[in-house]
Task: structure prediction
Amino acid sequence: MAIETAVLFGGIVSEAIVFILLMRRKEWRILPMFCAYVAWTLVSDPTSYFVISKVSADTYRSYYLVEVTIDSLLQFAVLVELTWSVLRPVRASLPRATPIVLGVIIAVAGLVIWPLAGMTVPPKFPGEAALLFHVQETFAIMRVVCFLIMASFSQVLSIGWRDRELQVATGLGIYSIVTLIVAVMHSHQTSGDLYASLDVIGTISYLATLFYWIYSFATKEQERKEFSPQMQQFLVLMGGGARADRIALSDLPSERSRKRIK
Result:
């Protein structure tokens, strides 16, 4: 218990440092949803510690449901924000609806991942707990996929390890990989010292992520590189094609106008 408490408070202090660095670097201008997510964790973590030690199990269950819902919505917004932020060099040339399209794509990806995440749910979890755990693991896999895609295509996207988008995705991805491993092991180990030790490992991995972000955000972000000419042309053509389709549709005469022309 002493180790868990120390790690918990260490995490809260680290979250506060990350948030201060984000504000100092004015990262809210580029990644406002990520800043909001860090602020949320800074508030929710000590609140959860207080609630679980002071209220009944039923009250905590209701609180936990609300917390997971807000947390999931913020995580979804962060994933959309990261993908949209990666396109900064050509965003002016893309349609205004691009963030919505990205959100739909990520939501569809979540639906595809949902059955896979169900394999990590411990079989003895009751219905509501199993559902909440299922949601959390779905977002964990989505964070890993986001990190792997951004890291794999970093050259094409013209981003490096000193770009904020990849730094955020790396922290989320590494932590999520550890939590997924812990979840799979939990599904085969329902009690005993190993179960509690796995929880500590998951918490320590989150603390390591916060340390990585502290190191990353303490340094100035490098100037964002432009996309390669081929990538710029591809994205502009996609955006221009979509915009041209909208203009063409808007320029079509209405039925009433056609009758007047006749």
Remarks:
- The CA atoms of residues 171 and 209 lie 5 Å apart.
- The chain has two domains: 2-227, 228-262.
- The chain has a mean pLDDT of 82.
- The first helix runs from residue 2 to 24.
